């Protein structure tokens, strides 16, 4: 491997996490009971994201294999999004980044 090339594994990770909202959605679901939440719950709790953007981001995370979409057969229909095993593992890898950010977030703002 050429030393100037980016590691393909990091490139893959940033292909996911480098997009707005993806990391936050994975983190959000990781702190929910059973790693899952309803669309309306996410929209309420993450009020800065539009419904359209949330829908697109959830679909993107499904395509990456990080989420599953569950649709109830009852009335009313309830749609739940849940982290997959792959998504749960990614959420665990975010903890050291969160610790790093907590340590250095305010640096330079003093």
Automatic annotation (TrEMBL):
<feature type="domain" description="HTH hxlR-type">
    <location>
        <begin position="7"/>
        <end position="109"/>
    </location>
</feature>
<keyword id="KW-0805">Transcription regulation</keyword>
<dbReference type="InterPro" id="IPR036388">
    <property type="entry name" value="WH-like_DNA-bd_sf"/>
</dbReference>
<dbReference type="InterPro" id="IPR002577">
    <property type="entry name" value="HTH_HxlR"/>
</dbReference>
<protein>
    <submittedName>
        <fullName>Winged helix-turn-helix transcriptional regulator</fullName>
    </submittedName>
</protein>
<dbReference type="InterPro" id="IPR036390">
    <property type="entry name" value="WH_DNA-bd_sf"/>
</dbReference>
<dbReference type="Pfam" id="PF01638">
    <property type="entry name" value="HxlR"/>
</dbReference>
<keyword id="KW-0238">DNA-binding</keyword>
<keyword id="KW-0804">Transcription</keyword>
């Amino acid at each position: 491997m050429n030393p100037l090339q980016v590691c393909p594994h990091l490139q893959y990770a940033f292909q996911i996490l480098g997009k707005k909202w993806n990391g936050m959605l994975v983190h959000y679901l990781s702190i929910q009971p059973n790693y899952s939440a309803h669309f309306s719950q996410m929209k309420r709790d993450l009020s800065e994201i539009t419904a359209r953007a949330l829908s697109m981001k959830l679909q993107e995370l499904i395509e990456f294999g990080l989420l599953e979409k569950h649709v109830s057969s009852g009335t009313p229909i309830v749609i739940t999004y849940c982290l997959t095993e792959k998504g749960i593992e990614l959420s665990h890898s975010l903890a050291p980044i969160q610790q790093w950010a907590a340590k250095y977030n305010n640096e330079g703002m003093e």
